[in-house]
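Before going further, learn to read the protein records used in this course. The integers have meaning only within a learned vocabulary of local backbone shapes. The record below shows the convention in full.
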Amino acid sequence: MKRTVAVLAYEGMSPFETGIVTEVFGLPRPELGVPWYDLTLCAERPGPLRIVGGAKIDTEHGLDVFASAATVIVPGVSDVRADCSPELVAALRLARDRGARVVSICSGAFALAAAGLLDGRRAATHWQYTELLRRRFPLVRVDPDVLYIDDGNVLTSAGSAAGLDLCLHLVRQDHGPSIANAVARRLVIAPHREGGQAQFIEAPVPYDLDDDRITQTMTWVLANLREEIRVETLARRAHMSSRTYLRHFARCTGTSPTRWLIAQRVQASLPLLEKTATPVEEIARTVGFASPVTYRSHFVRAMRTSPSAYRRAFRA
């Protein structure tokens, strides 16, 4: 018996968002020897929808068909700051109450959160939206690092490409690892990716640097990462006591000098892993870690993957 899957289309969506779901669930795969999925494209209101690039898609299926599927997928929302329609909220709740798997990809988590489906749950979304999702829906336990989260009948994923990881996970649940691996091979992607989305996040600068003394010491640190750097050294350069420096640094950055320094050293190592064949041990010394073991430990904690795995992902 085929499993029904419904994906929600919306005005202004990217073709890639529906393409993810279509590639995994929509294409017939008779060679796999198992009943495949019955995929339906739905919209809040049946009819034509404009998508990115000037094209249109047209579907005759509305929210009633969407809510009746065994797996319902929201691949994104048109505006992460706008409220979802009451009709979509009701459809998502109905699907959940019927026992459907409710799935979001990327910004689709905002729709699930608006319906209350993520209250008290861990949830993933694109790293650009994690803070906004926290602010708008404080009951949601947003995890900024993972590619996807399976919380029973409610599943969420990070940025669009992470939706492929989650869709393969659903195939793995339904048909086992051999079938999921076969689908991955046909898509020419890894059946399972190492690490989380932390390794793809651009280096943030969420600082309120209104103190030139702190700014100058941070600039000096970035030019001297290889050196042994102590708080006392930075405090002297800022003409402060260590205690005063710690207080001012925390006010400006929201963290401690030590934590900030570790983050900068990990960040500085990324281009070396991506663009050179320099051994990991040498990279550790270059960015100022006392030993390769210390470097690997901090790297895994920050990036949710190892330096070697990161290099394979970005240099293959």
